[in-house]
Batch of 2 targets.
Target 1
Amino acid sequence: MDEQISAVREAVIAGNAPETEAAVHAGLAAGLSAKRLLDEGLVEGMRHVGQLFEEGEYFVPEMLVAARAMKAGLAILRPQLMEAAIEPKGKVVIGTVRGDMHDIGKNLVGMMLEGAGFEIRDLGVNVAPERFVEVVQNEHPDIVALSALLTTTMPNMAAVIEQLKAAGVREQVKVLVGGAPVTESFAQRIGADGFAPDASQCATLASSLVS
Ligand code: B1M
């Protein structure tokens, strides 16, 4: 069992997408849960890649191919990670904030929210505060979900909240924030309605906010 999980982890670290796909398929065929393959295989492999980058062993190209491998594995797990929901619980507009190109965590959060029954409007990466405001004004979502992976882009989460206030629509939506460097105290400081450390806790929090 653990052999299959470490095969997934190693394939991500090696940045080998076909091997990652094969290892995920093998894990599922062996009866491993999608959640274990995700948490202990894909996410753990990516955590290790970040560590190698910090240690100067990996550079941006290695991070990029590892990200591609992780995405390939995630695509296979997607159906298993999502439960069928009949009525949408609410609408979530999600995006990675301006200046930030990281989208794997944001995609995972979107997937989990979709699995929890939300309709998702994904604005992608490097999203300007004005764009979030425009979509809130035109599409009236229940929640705005912001992701940031860089300490330098975290202030752009505050900028979104400020611009929602300036446009007079702050009270119409709940704002959730998350991403590796984001903390509960940062979320409180910028006036967000909630923070979640990972995708599944984000789905739980979002559900509690709309219920
Ligand atoms: Co970048 N990168 N990167 N990178 N990268 C990090 C984030 C870094 C920590 C690496 C390191 O130094 N150890 C570091 C940031 C340092 C800092 O600011 N504290 C870093 C850096 C420095 C950079 C560049 C500046 C490098 C350079 O060019 N010199 C550059 C910046 C580009 C930019 O954005 N402007 C850069 C570029 C890249 C790539 C493009 C090569 C690639 C991204 C590819 C892609 O996303 N399509 C990349 C990658 C892959 C990483 C690491 C290795 C992995 C990120 C990841 O996908 N993790 C990362 C190191 C690390 O995090 N260990 C690193 C897996 C993912 C599932 O986790 O995104 O954390 P994560 O999401 C989690 C939670 O955070 C949470 O749920 C998810 C899972 O449950 N979550 C939320 C996320 N969003 C949420 C929102 C919520 C709630 C929870 O509510 C709404």
Note: The chain has a mean pLDDT of 93.
Target 2
Amino acid sequence: MVSFEYKAVGFVGLGAMGKPMAGHLAKKLPPGALVYVFDVAQVAVDDLCKEFPNRVVKSASAKEVAEKCDIVITMVPEGAHVKSVYLDPQTGICSTDISNKLLIDCSTIDTATSLLVKEYITKNFPTASFYDAPVSGGVVGAVKGTIAIFLGCSETDANLPRLTHLLHMMGKSIIPCGGPSLGLAAKLSNNYLSGIIAIAASEAFDMGMRSGLDPRVLQKVYAAGTGQNTICDKFTPVPGVYKEAPSSNGYQNGFKVQLMRKDFGLAVDMAKRVGSKNVLGELGLKTYTDAMNDPRCRDLDSRVVYRFLGGNEDWMKDID
Ligand code: NAD
């Protein structure tokens, strides 16, 4: 097996996803390698430094992380944060010499911002490499190290073996998607699909249940029929049908409806930009926007769209 040398790896953005991901690096990098971290929220930095005292080192800015490390991973919420982390003239990663460095952005953002950052880097530091690498699998996947990572690079990219080796410390499945920004395009089209399925599944369960069907029977029917999909199987929007689905636990610990709204909006914008006909986009976007603003749904797993659409959650008491 090929081995790679790691002296110092940087991580910027220690939120719900970034902190456990950086924690995996701290646990799995070879002895002697350090993890330099930065977040605008000091408490996240302090927590991780305390958990891994001889491994994780606090930095004063993204720029300082880049000065100390040959590889830097970023995981922040939106395009504006990615722009600031990379391009801020005083504190950004690109405000120091990043020649020959490997930069990996795991944030889920719009493809245009990712390409803008990549172009800036290619123009100013031709020997540096920048990749989009958004992830899927949620906070639970980040904690367990089982996330999927969609890499904006080709199968023949010279950096792919090194990227795969590093990213495998944080995730289970690493998929090269073809080229710059295509990891993001893949992630956004996946979340569009998953978001639409959740709405369709909620409506399908609701019409079946109102017609007199037990949702557990409906789930079996979908699983055996042409409607089979992961949302109905394992993220069942109706509570009490699949025990481990967030819906069965008060829609807690899932993929928040606000994040679905964000990704869905990015996907609809992408579809417009590339001229893809998109009849369900506006309806889906309105549904998630309204659900996100509904106090009964906000902060809960996005499959709470079943509640938003008026689905019966108390169905068990209507069954003999
Ligand atoms: P989060 O809000 O929990 O964490 C983001 C972190 O970035 C915060 O700690 C924040 O302080 C930090 N940050 C913001 N601006 C910064 C800056 N300029 N410099 C340094 N740090 C900065 O978000 P999250 O849930 O970890 O999500 C991060 C990204 O991953 C998002 O793009 C999200 O869509 C994506 N994602 C999230 C999930 C999920 O289930 N939470 C799943 C897959 C992908």
Note: DSSP finds 13 helices and nine strands in the chain.
